[in-house]
TrEMBL record:
Originating organism: uncultured Anaerotruncus sp
EC number: 7.1.1.1
Protein's UniProt name: proton-translocating NAD(P)(+) transhydrogenase
Reactions the enzyme catalyzes: NAD(+) + NADPH + H(+)(in) = NADH + NADP(+) + H(+)(out)
Subcellular compartments: Membrane
Bilayer-spanning residue ranges: 6-23, 35-52, 58-76, 88-107, 119-138, 150-175, 181-200, 207-227, 233-253
Enzyme class: translocase
Segments forming domain NADP transhydrogenase beta-like: 9-458, 470-640
Amino acid sequence: MTSTVYYMICAVLTLGVLVGIAMMSKVPTAVKGNLLSAGCTLAAVLVTLYRYDILSDWLLWGSMAVGLVIGLVWTVKIKMIEMPQLVAFFNGLGGAASMLVALLSLLEAPQLDLFSRVTASLAMVIGSITFTGSMIAAGKLHKILSQKSIVWPAHQAITTISLVASAVCVGAAAVEGLSPLLLIVVPLAISGFFGIAFAIRIGGADMPITISLLNSLSGVAGSIAGMAIGDPLLVAIGGVVGASGLLLTQIMCRAMNRSLGDILLGKTSAPAKPKAAVPAPQEKEPEPVVAEELSPAEILREAKKVIIVPGYGMALAQAQHLVKQLSDKLEANGTEVLYAIHPVAGRMPGHMNVLLCEADVPYEKLHEMEEVNPEFDSCDAAIIIGANDVVNPAARDAEGTPIYGMPVLNVDHAKHIIICNYDLKPGYAGVDNPLYSRKEGVSMLLGDASQTLAQLLADLSAPKKSASDAPVVEEEGPAEILREAKKVIIVPGYGMALAQAQHLVKQLSDKLEANGTQVLYAIHPVAGRMPGHMNVLLCEADVPYEKLHEMEEVNPEFDSCDAAIIIGANDVVNPAARDAEGTPIYGMPVLDVDHAKHIIICNYDLKPGYAGVDNPLYSRKEGVSLLLGDAAETLSQLLQSI
């Protein structure tokens, strides 16, 4: 094969990868786009083998066969909830591959020119950083390591020194005649240590951005390695991966109102003392005739428009299918259901989208934050499922906290908020969510999201009570609220992921939609443990992407929703983020679930989220229904009750 033909093939394959990526941006062509990019990558491998006349090397074929077997086994064994750590692990493998290519090149340093030596050293250093950083990220996500920020004494100085030393090692590669110790071993050790140092202090809430950055670095390392060995195909494909990963990182940083430098320096993950949230202002809604408080089921039953806000809790509870059932039930009741997707909900890009897709939620129902936030003002209910920081109103006002200034889903604008969270703990940022202590318009369904959603579905299925059946002072249950809701917003969080309740969430959504209820999913950017975590889980449960609404888009919907259902979310729906100055979540944009008429909280218990900030929604006397326990169990019970 001549060089001209090879370069032409490289151009075609690179273009094919780009076209595949473009196709993946649209739901109808996403699968085909993924297959196209994968096919072009496979073709690139085969072309490279042919180009260098090594097709007959059976060791290479044997190695690829081993990789194929491992991939097939993981396809069956790896659960959807484990996708974030798998993505981080793959990023690490990409960095390790580039590191090895560069290392082998440097072993022939005497034969290399200046450019090749320096680029090989740079690729080795970046690959080493990517590998060790990704392994730390995967360990945190898999709970082998603490998910909290780990800060060493003089951590900043250590990180800075190791980074500068890594750069010096790359520059030293320009010197001819260096020993392998100085050329390879020392740079590997220093850069590998830097990867550990920068990743170890990044906490769970910022992990989605970290994974995106590591993905970008894996592409950059591959591209530079291609320069070192003179392979234009590796340069091109690596450049595409690096650029796309960096673009995603920038998008997520903007969504979080964060500086990438602050995240990498650990400023946003630094532990802070929990600070009590300023109670959310209560709107006086005179009810001279009916004194009883509606249950979440009753609110959803009457709702015309509901926004569902999934978070990492939905992924943990694997409740995406219950969310879909709830959405279907609401829609069958004539309720419009939207899904609010926060850019960093979950633990990886598109996490909520993937989970909802798995539950067969139509992609068209998944709405990004900017699109869905205005909808909260007119939604009857917002259902938060395992989300906390991404719906925490304190992000608007709690200056000095990690979430201050971060855009959040405006779940607190909904008429009622149903929070299906595991407990009352603040989210990762440690900022109290004022929704938890709001007196009116919030229903807390604490416990495992799959359990609370099941219970909510059960309540919606239960026969509607007439006025003569119960005293006026009786509080309406979550099922009754959802049964009457015209608009419900579901807010998923990490608790849903833990309970693997995404399928129950889908069932709940389906049941609500079947009852004529509009169901929205409110997705906070940092709900879950990776970018798009909630999206992935809800996609897994076949929740239409169009129902997933990002924070900015869905927050306005909370003001007009009858119920918001929180499933395993805490910090992302904590109103304390607006007012609790000095807490980690102060100023972080959150989903405005406290604006919903009623909030159903499906959380495991009443503990604060990761940030350690009490959520005022948990102590609110009116408008909140708490369904505590495992989300899978509570969702199942709720499904039976509806």
